[in-house]
Amino acid sequence: MLASLTNFILSGESLSDAFGYKDDYLYISFLFLCLPLGWINRCSYLFGLPPFSKLANAVQLLLTLRLVSLAADTREYLSGPLSKIDLFPNNYSRFLDHQQGSLLSRFFQYTCFSYCFLGLFTGPFFRAKTYNDMICNPNLYRIPYRHGLIKVIFYLPLYISVHLILAKLFPFDFVGTEEYYAHEWGALFRLAYFVPYCVAFRWRFYIAWTISVASCILAGLGAYPESAKCRPGIGPTCNPKTEDNTVDYKTVENLEVWEIETSTTIDGPLQHWNMTVQSFFYYYIYKSFPNRTFGRLVTFALSAYWHGLNLGYYIAFFMFMFCITAQYCFIRFTQPLRVKGTEKVWLVLDFLCAWRAYEYNGFAFLLLTPEKIFRAWASVYYIGHYITVVWVLIGAFQLLFGTLFMKSKKKLA
């Protein structure tokens, strides 16, 4: 409630006008909401308070995204179409585009959106525009949902079965024990153990997100015509056709399991995993920076901060960046060998490399504390680090020699 009240006060034009923060409004709101996320929630022990439960932490995570998006959307709406603040390229995607301005002036509606139970504990993330479209829809109970619901929950029994079996056979509590490090197969066993465990870990999220998206579909949240060309978390990007009677729930779509599990690049699963939150970080964080490299660094850093203050999150996210760079260096270097007839071989090789990188970084993401992380990496001889550094260096030399070769060729010409 305090977070909603703070952001509601900040959303008024008078405050931003008084202090001259028109163009920095998004960043002010972001700081007001994200600092409590880290220092009150996760450092409560410093104030003599008991630690937050996992459930309270989950609510705080999603609440932060909702309020930051609402701050940015409100500011964009109040700034007008000529403002430098333009998060979405199409006017239809703009916040409060059809007489929904009541949300700006009524604290009760503001709070209802903030604490709407749909997606509050697990996601998906959705904007206030999507929430208002659901609340203000006079035909909400006539929206067909069976086809969309069946499509989402069809594989739910499979997700549950795979997770329960693997979690039983490969418990995470075993990682880090003396028995784990003393196994007779050595580093090979330690690397292999993380393969089924990481499957169990991510399929647990498949279960939670599938159930959560199903609840959104049953409530009619995110139901738009297909011609509206919705994006996960963002909603419609164009005005739907009047004769279009189809129903699309892509606004609350949070994952594409087949694309994740068959991805052959390291950054591939990131585009299909927790897609609504990915949209938040892309539109509200990454697009705020004109420099793509700096924007990517800030986005990864804030994503790690959003997950928690544990050093393991930061190590894992920045290691991911180097692994992504290394894989593209590998693909570019081997491009002359990727001739017709060998496509499947290279796809399998890329697939194996990508998922081994995920599992290697999983040591940092799951163990969290530096002493546990580096002990685990040392037990497999830092093999992932060496491979990453080698391919980044090869890629750098390839670009350097390619640039020098092109310059010398131009001079001779």
UniProtKB/TrEMBL annotation:
<keyword id="KW-0472">Membrane</keyword>
<dbReference type="GO" id="GO:0006661">
    <property type="term" value="P:phosphatidylinositol biosynthetic process"/>
</dbReference>
<feature type="transmembrane region" description="Helical">
    <location>
        <begin position="206"/>
        <end position="224"/>
    </location>
</feature>
<feature type="transmembrane region" description="Helical">
    <location>
        <begin position="149"/>
        <end position="170"/>
    </location>
</feature>
<dbReference type="InterPro" id="IPR049941">
    <property type="entry name" value="LPLAT_7/PORCN-like"/>
</dbReference>
<keyword id="KW-0812">Transmembrane</keyword>
<keyword id="KW-1133">Transmembrane helix</keyword>
<feature type="transmembrane region" description="Helical">
    <location>
        <begin position="182"/>
        <end position="199"/>
    </location>
</feature>
<dbReference type="GO" id="GO:0071617">
    <property type="term" value="F:lysophospholipid acyltransferase activity"/>
</dbReference>
<feature type="transmembrane region" description="Helical">
    <location>
        <begin position="107"/>
        <end position="128"/>
    </location>
</feature>
<comment type="similarity">
    <text>Belongs to the membrane-bound acyltransferase family.</text>
</comment>
<keyword id="KW-0012">Acyltransferase</keyword>
<feature type="transmembrane region" description="Helical">
    <location>
        <begin position="311"/>
        <end position="333"/>
    </location>
</feature>
<dbReference type="InterPro" id="IPR004299">
    <property type="entry name" value="MBOAT_fam"/>
</dbReference>
<dbReference type="GO" id="GO:0016020">
    <property type="term" value="C:membrane"/>
</dbReference>
<comment type="pathway">
    <text>Phospholipid metabolism.</text>
</comment>
<feature type="transmembrane region" description="Helical">
    <location>
        <begin position="25"/>
        <end position="43"/>
    </location>
</feature>
<dbReference type="GO" id="GO:0030258">
    <property type="term" value="P:lipid modification"/>
</dbReference>
<dbReference type="GO" id="GO:0044233">
    <property type="term" value="C:mitochondria-associated endoplasmic reticulum membrane contact site"/>
</dbReference>
<feature type="transmembrane region" description="Helical">
    <location>
        <begin position="345"/>
        <end position="368"/>
    </location>
</feature>
<protein>
    <recommendedName>
        <fullName>Lysophospholipid acyltransferase 7</fullName>
    </recommendedName>
</protein>
<comment type="pathway">
    <text>Lipid metabolism; phospholipid metabolism.</text>
</comment>
<keyword id="KW-0808">Transferase</keyword>
<dbReference type="Pfam" id="PF03062">
    <property type="entry name" value="MBOAT"/>
</dbReference>
<feature type="transmembrane region" description="Helical">
    <location>
        <begin position="380"/>
        <end position="405"/>
    </location>
</feature>
